[in-house]
UniProtKB/TrEMBL annotation:
GO terms for molecular function: transmembrane transporter activity. Residues 208-396 form the Major facilitator superfamily (MFS) profile domain. Pfam families: MFS_1. InterPro entries: MFS, MFS_dom, MFS_trans_sf. It comes from Shewanella chilikensis. The keyword Membrane applies. Keywords: Membrane, Transmembrane, Transmembrane helix. The chain crosses the membrane at residues 7-29, 41-62, 69-88, 94-114, 134-152, 158-181, 210-228, 248-269, 276-294, 300-325, 337-358, 364-383. This is MFS transporter.
Amino acid sequence: MPLNVWVLMLAQAFAMSATPIMVLLGGIIGAELSPVPSLSTLPIAMMVVGVAVAIVPINILMQRLGRRRVFIGGALLTSVAGVMAALSVWYAQFWGFCASGLLLGCGGAIIQQYRFAAMESVAPTLSAKAASRVLLGGLLAAFLGPELALLAKDILPVTYSGAFLMVTLVGVLALVCLLFYQDEGPVLKASKVERMGIRPLPIILRQSRLWVACGAAVIGYALMSFIMTATPVHMHHIEHHSLEDTKWVIQSHVIAMYLPSLISGYLIARLGHTRIMLAGLALYCLTLALALAGRDLLNYWSALVMLGVGWNFLFVAGTSLLPGCYRPEERFTVQSFNDSLVFGSQALASLGAGWVIYQLGWQLLLVICIPAIATQLILIAWWKLSKSKALQITEP
């Protein structure tokens, strides 16, 4: 793999450590500071909203300034968000804490572009492996983020304020890594040799393959966020599990999200995108069954681990399928469309999680996920049927 891929993997490891810190503590701090219980997950939801609203502006900036400058700016943004969150906790400012989540999400939107930059740095046949290699950086983040949060939560007089200074630290470390990133890759160089023109987006969207790719990422991310956001609140505040047990469940979940990246690129190359997507959907069904079966620590842990692995299969398969739907010069248009759908739906899921968990309960929250799983199955069936019809038309 080129140096770019390794640089992005390491930057991902540091920068993504901020996310599990907010996921672990955001709902808990939100429950303590929010004026009403149903707003307890709003800080986490605002982080996801930040990702969603920043996607299009970030892609415009990358077109004009290049990925490297925007990546470095994103690391700085993460660091600033950490300081803002720490001050908000210190002064018990709920809305300031929500604003820091929004800012952290804007930085996170830039981190989400690492996978596309990695795929542009390698030959098309290696795109799945490059994407999974970068996502593997999240494995270190799964350990680093929660451990830093617990280590630093009491270093300042106000509990948890010190934990968010660790967000600033990991942002600075990511920035140092990104200084070694280079914008040019073989895909970009090839596109400069022969440009075929940029098609209108409605023309590109006629491909069933594109909707399957987007659907895998959208449904994978939205359901994962919906369940993950509600879990710490339900475990710690409703079922009264300890913070250490809650941390272990979330940490195990994040590990399960990224550890399969060791093999998911290989599995996609060997078994194909469709089978890996179906495996991811099957794991999501298993997640629901395990979570509905009981409220013991083992139920939460096993369900969240299955949720993490299922997310990895769906997200890596969808991400690596997407480049086959556009020309190199169309990449920013299609990537911003894809990520707007992905993180817009994730934002809605996170915003809804707090309300659903308090108003409808844990079981109904899980049942709501079933139609989304069925939707992706329908999209895959449509894609396969379209391919079958296309083959019949081309046959003599």
